[in-house]
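Epoxyqueuosine reductase, pasting as requested.
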Amino acid sequence: MNHPPNIVRSDSSPAHPNRWLADRIRDWGRELGFQQVGITDTDLSTAEGRLMEWLADGRHGDMEYMARHGTKRSRPAELVPGTLRVISVRMDYLPETPDRTRGILADPATAFISRYALGRDYHKLIRKRLQRMAERIQAAVAPAACRVFVDSAPVLEKPLAEKAGLGWIGKHTNLIDPQAGSWFFLGEIYTDLSLPIDHPGVSHCGRCQNCIDICPTRAIVAPYQLDARRCISYLTIEHQGSIPEALRTPIGNRIYGCDDCQLVCPWNRFARRTREADFLPRAGLDTATLIELFGWDETTFLERTQGSAIRRIGHVRWLRNIAVALGNADSAPEVETALRTHAEHPSEMVREHVAWALERQGSA
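Structure tokens follow.
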């Protein structure tokens, strides 16, 4: 560009003088593969109150990092001094039709992996795209401070996205867009530029409580209230220790995450399939059987999950999760044979879950 308009660093008029830059940021976002871009200020006082209450109730479970940074999570300018605005983006990731996903969930012999984790790790892909957007902003306006985040720092991404007009936080605590459902990732750019802000999202959940009714472990304890300690995504991904016995049977064949609340959300009839090849299934993870995946040794696990979000749970928790799913599978000699291959595993946690699964198979 030749000579851009002057950048004003405070909101001083109804016709915001930086509107031209906000419009260009949206254009750049679309060019970089984001389906939507919104801008908001840094006032998260309402969300901060809810976060503190959630933490005080212990509903974060083992996720001590949620409390580690104090108010930096809910006060962007404490995390990145000088932050005035947050640019929030979303990118669709749905790799297949919901009917196909339901079919996999209904087959107790097949491993179910949350649809977001079937392809490459989204963190790197979205971070690179956001960094390119930040570079374009800095090329247009110098100096401009821009800091990129993709689920990698204490950031309240869903409340920020809601304020930026990307949707509303539903009763299952996921963000919902009225034209795209909820199958998407979020990312942010913190900046010191004063940009015009967007209108926040407005809730359209109404009296619907499909997500509350479908939750296998009753983790959505009330509308807009999630107890992570009961959530299958938490139990199979974040939780480091033994899965409580009372919650093992409801897990079914879900070995990494859970999508039930999204599958029943009526707004997801508007969800679109992803345009990103990197989000499509890899290593046959969308069709693999539980027995097949239970046979992966650690070397194979690391090879097959290279570049995947799944790798972060490690081989021991991978086996823990699959042992639970095999315990929930239909009784069959091949299931028992597979379980016995890890009955003497070096990990006490794996042995415990295998023993539980063998007992379930025997009683069945």
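Note for the archive: Residues 1-95+119-224+261-275 form one domain.
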